[in-house]
Amino acid sequence: MGQYAWGTTIAPDGTVGPIEQILTDTGFRKVEIGVWDTERLRCAFGLPAEIKQIGLPSVRQTVWSYRYKEAGTWNSLMHVYVSDDGIVQRMHPGPDPLFEQEIWPFL
User: Fold this and answer.
1) How far is CA 2 from CA 46, 48, 69, 96, in A?
2) 3-class SS at 10?
3) CA proximity to 1, closest of 23, 31, 25
4) Is the N end or the C end of the chain the one with fewer CB atoms within 10 Å?
5) Cα–Cα distances in Å, from 83 out to 1, 53, 59, 75, 80?
6) Architecture of domain 23-97 in this structure
7) Nearest-5° angle of CA 92, CA 5, CA 101?
8) 45-62: string of b/e by CB count within 10 Å (b at 16+)?
9) In the chain, what is the greatest distance between 2 CA atoms, to the nearest angstrom?
């Protein structure tokens, strides 16, 4: 379901580094607010599961959301808010509605 992605580094001499799971809390902590842009996000984590526009027309924001297992357990989305020029402004995890169970089926 797109919760896992693997990556590695390749040194200038062609040496391949360790292969690591990149959609993790540790991976997302590497993102630098105000420094990273959408190109860097795409390079580090791949394409997001969703790209949405949120908010009122006067304060619209673009949010890139990545599916992952928060703390290695919880089905979550990491929401990354980017400015119009593509710079990361803030980010936070939240539950992934794809995995939410309907608790009030009669509503």
Assistant:
1) 10, 9, 10, 12
2) strand
3) 23
4) C
5) 27, 11, 11, 26, 10
6) 2-Layer Sandwich (3.30)
7) 55
8) beebbeeeeeeeeeeeeb
9) 62
Q: How far apart are CA 27 and CA 80, in angstroms?
A: 13
Asked if residue 2 lies in contact with residue 99, where contact means CB atoms within 8 angstroms, the answer is: no
> Is 106 a residue whose pLDDT tops 70?
no
DSSP string, 27-96: HHHT--TTT-BHHHHHHHH-S-SEEEEES-GGG-EEEEEEEEEETTTEEEEEEEEE-TTSBEEEEEEEE-
- Token couple for 67: 């599916």
Whole-prediction pTM value? 0.86
CA distance 100 to 71: 17
